[in-house]
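G., before I forget:
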Amino acid sequence: MTAVPAGLLPVGKRSRRSAGTTVAAGFLGLVVLAAVFAPPLAPYPPDAVDLSSSLVGTGPEHPLGTDASGQDLLSRVLYGARTSLIAPVLLLAFASVLGVALGTLAAWRGGWVDTLVSRATDVMYAFPGLLFVVLIIAVFGAGMTTSVLGLGLAFAPTIAKYTRSVALSERAKPYIDAYRVQGMGGARICVRHLVPNLARSIAGYLVVLFGEALMSLATLSYLGFGAQPPSSDWGLMVQEGQSAIVQGALLPALVPGTAIAAVVVAFNVVGVRAADRLGSRR
Amino acid sequence: MNGNSPQDGAPLLMVEGLRKTFRLPGGGTLTAADQISFTLPEGGSVGIVGESGSGKSTVARMLAGLERPDAGTVTVNGRDRHSARRGTRSRRDRLARAREIQMVFQDPYVSLDPRLTAGQCLRTALRLHGHPAVEDRIRSLLDRVGLGAREAEARPHELSGGQRQRLAIARALAVDPCILVLDEAVAALDVSIQAQILQLLAGIREDTGVALVFVSHDLAVVQHITDETVVMRRGTVVEQGPTDRVLRTPRHAYTRLLLTSVPHQDWDPSEVVRARAEAAEAEAA
């Protein structure tokens, strides 16, 4: 029996954990590069239909095979990275503007304003986000813009709740009191000093939410509410590839499905780490 | 100093019958301060001493306008500081009140905005008050508190505790206040740094004529920097008068107790504990 040298175990654990983070971050970097350089990288245009090579398996012509319309899956998945990454960014940007504003207002004003905002976000919270978005889509029609804005509204309460909690503890710090004693108005303190000091921890939280946002958008596209053909959105691709499974071709659903899963997992791995690091200042 | 001229004969700061109660989570109330009255002449210096929980910090916060008193008034140059309803003040009014009283907080580790360098910290205050020649003023303020160009570029986490408290004092002075309230301003610092900061404050008082309200649990600190002393216990004033007199011939048992609690040569902690028990007994009787 060999004794474990004291202190080695935690170090090993730590390096293993950060190795996982490094791999995940590296993978995400590759995905971003793929999205940016999709045109030179993709062997075919994403919407090039070639019915003569429908549902072809992997081969030199089509590294990841083709779908039912003979569209090259590798090309589509590369182009799809664009919508799949940009849409969650827009969604979270919209949700953060709303959520941070509401959360800060609640924390700063306290009293009935806080009660009102908190109860309103609780109600939104209790309502399943996707159901809420489907309702909005029923009113305003399907499409990526509606999905992004609708999901943005659904995500805002989560961000508001988080912002409220971090703003409450930040607001209690004497440097905020010092600004009040200086005669600075509440709005200016919040916008110029309180929120900028929360930016790091909110950013960490947003990275965690990114995977969820991507997933929800893909779900909407899969259900036919989000991206519309001929978009090569991953969620839409899974839906289009679904029927091919019956015909024995797994790749049309598997390729975009794997892309979604891999990116979401990578974001969660990086997100937890980022939240740890950004949440605690220096 | 700003242009407010004191009314003839009236003190610069007049505190009358100040009271503040807080609602406790359990449902009861805590009277943090009750019937607090004292005055401060222009350029004067008053100490508010007492143990933790005596309500002295609450008084400081009421003076600075961070807490609203339930009763009583705080008057500076004949102007009631709490006359307007909260949130209804104009910008002009807020800035004018800021020039009456500024505050230095206990813990310089959290009383400075972590994002701003020392220079930016002062710039924010000076710009807010529409000060002309901001950059010159920043230099002279930093110089006044013994900080140099190197510190001007540093963020709070790059400064030592003493340097941070110097910056906090400079920030308060940037507004050109008539009165500086120091809430345990040296309590978080090493003893040797305490002495430097106290000396700095005494010098600033001499130069600018700013009046000081020095809140502290430390009688030795108060002794060096104040003319008058107010002794607080459980939210009320038990004794007040010239600092020399209060420290040399204390009239109230609690003041005597505080004095015996200060460590010195031949100091016997067990005697303090005994004295405390006696005081508690006498009170119960």
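Residues 1-7 of chain B have pLDDT under 50 and may be disordered. Residues 191-208 of chain B form the longest helix (18 residues).

More on Monday.
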